[in-house]
């Protein structure tokens, strides 16, 4: 094997996987499980938040900070009782909103879309919804109906694969410099990514 081919293999091992549009469907992978639920934390977005970590991700980003949650079978089953607990927790006046992360929220739409809909039904726009995804905003525009529907419920999207060579611990709410914090409502109107107005780095 040539040195160039060996170097290319090594390079590819250091990068996340890149799906084709609609290649990965939630219905084919999700096992309806979550890795964790953390009410009232201060790290997963702006303000006090309730954070749901779903189980399962196919991007397999090298250096992923939550590698155990890449497994679709990891953790506990998502139940109606847990969903109601999350909604009740969100009702606290000091809680700004819900955060969806994992794992990959857009590969677990049986969980995340159901919850996002109920947040809007119960709270309207008084609670915001943030999501972290390995998909870019542009990729999601070409994705399956369930992913597009979930995107429409989200206010802020932190998008893109984690790239270890671009890691920067000083970044606001993200791990590598290729990732963006996107205002989804404005972006959907313009059909192009609009960066969150409160970005400070």
What's a quick, concise take on this entry?
30% of the residues lie in helices and 19% in strands. It has 201 residues and is α/β, with parallel strands linked by helices. It has a seven-stranded mixed sheet with strand order 3-1-2-4-5-6-7.
Structural domain count: 1
Indicate the radius of gyration in whole angstroms. Answer: 17 Å
What's the total number of strands? 7
The largest pleated sheet is described as: 7 strands, mixed
Arithmetic mean of pLDDT = 94
Write the H/E string, N to C. Answer: HHEEEHEHEHHEEH
* Proportion of helical residues: 25-40%
Shape: globular
Residue fraction in strands: 15-25%
- Order of adjacent strands in the largest pleated sheet: 3-1-2-4-5-6-7
Structural class, by secondary structure, is alpha/beta
Low-confidence stretches: 6-10
Question: Overview of this structure, please?
Answer:
This protein is α/β, with parallel strands linked by helices. It has one domain. The protein is 30% helix and 19% strand. It is built from 7 helices and 7 strands; from the N terminus they run ααβββαβαβααββα. Strands 3-1-2-4-5-6-7 form a 7-stranded mixed beta sheet. It starts with a helix and ends in an 11-residue tail after the last helix. Mean pLDDT is 94; it is low at 6-10.
Q: Which features characterize this protein?
A:
201 residues, alpha/beta, seven-stranded mixed sheet, 7 strands, globular
